[in-house]
# Entry
Amino acid sequence: MEIADWRNKIDELDEQIVKLISERAAAAVAIGKLKQESDAPIYEPNRERVVFAHVRDINPGPLSGVQVQDIYERIMDVMRTLQRPVETK
Amino acid sequence: MEIADWRNKIDELDEQIVKLISERAAAAVAIGKLKQESDAPIYEPNRERVVFAHVRDINPGPLSGVQVQDIYERIMDVMRTLQRPVETK
# Structure
């Protein structure tokens, strides 16, 4: 396969990744609403640790566990922003 | 759905996301090898711009385009590291 072929494959993967990240974001919004209703804190370091451990655990490579967690730290940062009420965004 | 149900859904989504990001990483490794063979540069800002435009374009929400790009900037940073020869990692 040439570079152009691999890039076509990457573009297709990105379409699936963006779709799944968006579904994850919709779930985070739903959780944010439930948290607001119950006055629960938005930032829950224990849950974030569970997520990081999970993604490192299921990582098949070639990324290292640190690299997968690095990507997920950004994902979690963005998801947290999404849970904050509009006026504090 | 309760918070615990949404979290189960998120864990399932993460399993698919990590799988796809790993496939993307494997494709980046393959491209890195082709680049090394042809002495092409690892950092290609034009290609990165195309990727960012693509993911913003296909983004269905609820994330903003900026937020999706924010996640992808981290993904691209990590993928670039993966393309560098081992001795400069």
Q: What stands out?
A: Residues 3-37 of chain B form the longest helix (35 residues). Residues 3-88 of chain B form a domain with the Chorismate Mutase Domain, subunit A fold (CATH 1.20.59.10). The mean pLDDT of chain B is 93. Residues 4 and 10 of chain B are 10 Å apart (CA to CA).
